[in-house]
Amino acid sequence: MALLMLAASVYGVAQLLVLSSPSRSVRIGTVLLAIAVGVYGCGIATALLEYAYTRAIADQPSGGVLIEAVQTAGYTVDPVVEELVKVTPLLLAAWNIKVRRQWGLTDYVVTGAALGAGFGLLEAVARYGLSSNRAIGHPDGGWIIPKSLIGTPYIPGPDQLLFAWFPAPAGSLGAGGLHPAAQTSPHLVYTAVAALGVGVLIRARGWPRIAGLLPVTAACAHHILANYSVRHPADRDVKSLVELNGLLWAIPLICLAIAVIADVRQIRQAKRTVPGVLTQAERAGRTGLEH
């Protein structure tokens, strides 16, 4: 079951790797390493931070019971902390001037998505990794973990992963779910969006750099709404905003499209600006694929 979770995380990142080929400069090995950083770096650091401040709040005279502090932080402070921690490796990488000059927006989006995929993998393994002995194979593929009639944990199988965009390592199967499907990995989506903002903050010049704060804020806001919806399932208005009509999977594609278009334009402008970079065919408006 843990292998299926790992396969789901790697498969979602592999989809972005293929689609980002026109403008990606970061190596495949680096992106795969980012998954491990998301697991062992971002995931563990976030767990320690959340452990520290929830207990600090509970220890205050007016802090209340620990479980209440944990539940409240789950849809207030935790989402913001998680998103900031997940993009921290990107900021550390950009501290290297060589990386800062070489990486384009595409590299930030793909690497950020890998960090989010690793984070989501750790979260799924921590929740269900020790429940493999209770898992039951679903007739249509994948595994379910008997827990409750509402929101039964579901681990997608190979058939579900193959036809899904950015599948989550684990999801939930509602009551009467006869045809299970892999859900979209929320952490991959959030970090891809936030990473686009980080890329703009680092690469932009002047006042347009401020626009980079918008994707980061949007990722944190949607994460807060998603966690709030889990704690308050009766609030249907919030739930509809979280689900986005089932189009959550399209958000990384939109971020990647924006990044690829911006990077390709910048590459072409650089070739026209620097003498001797363009080949004769390129100066004539042709590409090597035409020969």
Which SSEs are present, and which pair or pack?
Elements: H1 2-19, H2 28-58, H3 66-74, H4 78-94, H5 97-102, H6 105-128, E1 136-137, E2 143-144, E3 152-155, H7 158-162, E4 171-173, H8 186-203, H9 213-231, H10 236-243, H11 250-273, H12 280-283
Helix pairs in contact: 1-2, 1-6, 2-3, 2-4, 2-6, 4-6, 4-8, 4-9, 6-8, 6-11, 8-9, 8-11, 9-10
Chain-averaged pLDDT: 87
Per DSSP, what share of the residues sits in E-state strands of 2 or more residues? under 5%
Estimated radius of gyration: 21 Å
Shape from CA axes?
A: globular
Count structural domains.
Answer: 1
* SS elements, strand count: 4
Structure classification: mainly alpha
Uncertain spans: 285-291
The description of the largest β-sheet is: 4 strands, antiparallel
- What is the helix content? 55-70%
**Separation, N- and C-terminal Cα atoms:** 49 Å
Order of helices and strands: HHHHHHEEEHEHHHHH
Describe this structure in a few short sentences.
By secondary structure, this protein is mostly helical.
Q: How would you describe the overall organization of this protein?
A:
With 291 residues, the protein is mainly alpha-helical. It has one domain. The protein is 63% helix and 4% strand. It has twelve helices and four strands. Strands 1-2-3-4 form a four-stranded antiparallel β-sheet, with no helix packed on it. The longest helix is centred in the first third of the chain and has 31 residues. The chain starts with a helix and ends in an 8-residue tail after the last helix. The C terminus is likely disordered.
